[in-house]
Specification:
heterodimer; A: mainly alpha; 51% helix; disordered N terminus; B: alpha/beta; 11 strands
Chain lengths: 83, 464
């Protein structure tokens, strides 16, 4: 991560450090943009931690696919039910 | 004058009014004339297309008929591998022989059905971000007004259909990438149930969300394309094993007694919903009501959270696929692509797990609503197509979005044109159905199109 990032905000430092730890070397102007993206998305993602979701049993990655309707649910009509 | 739909062209071919060779030649000529202006195609496969058209004509002459797609010129999004052209994903990152220079199962199925593939259509790079003028690819433009975006990521797929460069086309949809460009350009586009069409041989974006679906002028044509595309393939373990119905046979134009759900909150009442879009979609619902459908308001909670969860899952999965290339070749990605993909490196494992929990919650919401009604109708997009000069990928990413929820839940959803704005840009509604009930959403879309003519409107550039 370029030295210029050192003059940024705490959030920019955190984003820069996180990406540097994964091997990224990103120009400072784009790091600043990414930090802004992170800021706005962090607020939105934090809203996913709502009570109804927290009450849902955690699913493993494989179990998630198990819940995905990859087989045809037989109880569903092929046409609108009221027809 | 070339037929405007697959259905009309199939009829013309069988009546001897035209030949596949003549039809394909005409569309290739138009594609070559307009491609610099519209940016529809990355590659036009004229030679292999003409060979396929000649074969289709020989088959007709010999009495061999593979069905309604025989001899029909179509196009494929350039993230779908084919044997006769490189696959670029509109990127210099992807090796040109990606996919092993063989047809993806969906491409092979369409060829077996007799379709003539005339080219590979423009996508946003790797099906995300937005076009970067600094890269060596054409910028896709809206055929109704080339200063406006065609939306994406299946941009060229929509453009080719609406501008009359192909009679049908195939795109992919992970968070709206078929429905958004269909809405922006006035095409009819179907996002299928997750697993309905095999996606092996298709460059992944978010692999637990990705779908491959048809786009055309009409719901009827989408039904014809889907019938050839759908069904399990062993190369994609996530492709569904259930039978493929004859979708076109279910299109009888009847909607009497059909129960339509309108989720006012968020989908109609958000501040970002354009007034003309809202009015046009509600007018379309009135057309269906007048034809006998029963309309009721429904509650779809967690719509915003579902939209965000879709993006967390999508970009986490996309980051996993792209990370090593992003580290080594950052500057070779388009600016907007890399800024979109890097988000996935900033979400935590906990965020991804929580987004999957939200997915479970929202599936329950969708299931409960679709127990009360047969289909849900929303605007296809919050507003008509933006100006290219004012595209704001990051701003739009956190704004109201009406497509992502149904991708998250794995449900089928059809974008259908339903009017024009005062600026003469298309307006569109979205019809959402139960898992694997593609026949239902196509049936509603077809019934609407039998009662209206919005889908028949063609941009002036299509007459060139």
């Amino acid at each position: 991560v370029p030295d210029e990032a050192a003059s940024g905000t705490d959030e920019q430092h955190m984003v820069a450090a996180l990406l540097a730890s994964q091997g990224f070397s990103i120009p400072p102007d784009e790091l600043k943009i990414i930090s802004g993206i992170y800021d706005s998305w962090r607020a939105a993602v934090n809203e996913l931690y709502f009570p109804a979701a927290a009450a849902t049993a955690p699913t493993s990655f494989a179990a998630n696919f198990g819940e995905t309707p990859t087989t045809c649910p037989l109880h569903l009509p092929s046409r609108p039910t009221s027809q | 004058v070339s037929p405007a739909t697959i259905r009309a062209a199939a009829d013309a071919l069988r009546r001897g009014v035209t030949t596949s060779t003549a039809l394909t030649r005409a569309l290739l000529d138009r594609a070559q004339l307009l491609n610099e202006t519209l940016g529809a195609f990355v590659t036009i496969t004229a030679e292999s297309a003409m060979a396929a058209a000649e074969q289709a004509d020989r088959d007709f002459a010999a009495g061999t008929d593979a069905g309604p797609l025989q001899g029909i010129p179509i196009a494929l999004k350039d993230i779908i591998a084919t044997a006769d052209a490189p696959t670029t994903a509109n990127s210099v990152i992807l090796p040109r022989d990606w996919g092993g220079c063989t047809d993806a199962p969906v491409a092979a199925r369409l060829r077996r059905a007799g379709a003539v593939i005339i080219g590979k259509t423009t996508t946003y790079e790797f099906a995300c971000g937005q076009p970067d003028p600094g890269k060596a690819f054409l910028i896709p433009r809206n055929p109704w007004n080339t200063a406006h975006t065609s939306s994406g990521s299946s941009s060229g797929t929509a453009i080719s259909v609406v501008a009359g460069l192909a009679l049908g086309a195939v795109g992919t949809d992970t968070a709206g990438s078929i429905r958004a460009p269909a809405a922006a350009t006035g095409a009819t586009g179907l996002k299928v149930s997750f697993g309905r069409v095999p996606k092996s041989g298709v460059v992944p974006l978010g692999h637990s969300l990705d779908t491959v679906g048809p786009m055309a002028r009409t719901a009827y044509d989408c039904a014809l394309l889907l019938a050839a595309m759908a069904g399990h393939d062993p190369s994609d373990v996530l492709s569904a094993s259930c039978a493929v119905p004859s979708y076109a046979d279910s299109l009888d134009g009847r909607v009497e007694g059909l129960r339509i759900g309108l989720p006012r909150d968020y989908f109609y009442d958000s501040a970002s919903v354009d007034d003309e879009m809202r009015t046009a979609v509600l007018a379309a619902v009135d057309v269906l009501r007048d034809a006998g459908a029963i309309v009721r308001e429904v509650d779809v909670p967690y719509a915003r959270e579902a939209s965000v969860a879709n993006q967390v899952i999508l970009f986490s999965e996309a980051f996993g696929y792209h990370r090593d290339n992003l580290i080594r070749r950052w500057g070779e990605y388009g600016r907007y692509t890399r800024l979109a993909l890097i988000k996935g490196g900033l979400f935590t494992g906990g965020d991804y797990a929580q987004a999957q929990r939200v997915r479970t919650v929202f599936r329950g919401v969708a299931r409960a609503v679709l127990d009360q009604v047969d289909v849900i109708i929303t605007p296809g997009a919050p507003a008509p197509a933006d100006l290219i000069a004012s595209m704001d990928m990051q701003g739009a990413a956190l704004g109201a979005n009406f497509n992502r929820q149904w991708s998250l839940a794995g449900l089928p959803a059809l974008a259908v044109p339903c009017g024009f704005s005062s600026a003469k840009l298309p307006l569109s509604m979205q019809i959402i159905g139960r898992p694997f009930a593609e026949a239902d959403v196509l049936r509603v879309g077809d019934a609407y199109q039998l009662l209206t003519t919005w889908h028949e409107c063609r941009p002036p550039i299509a007459a060139m």
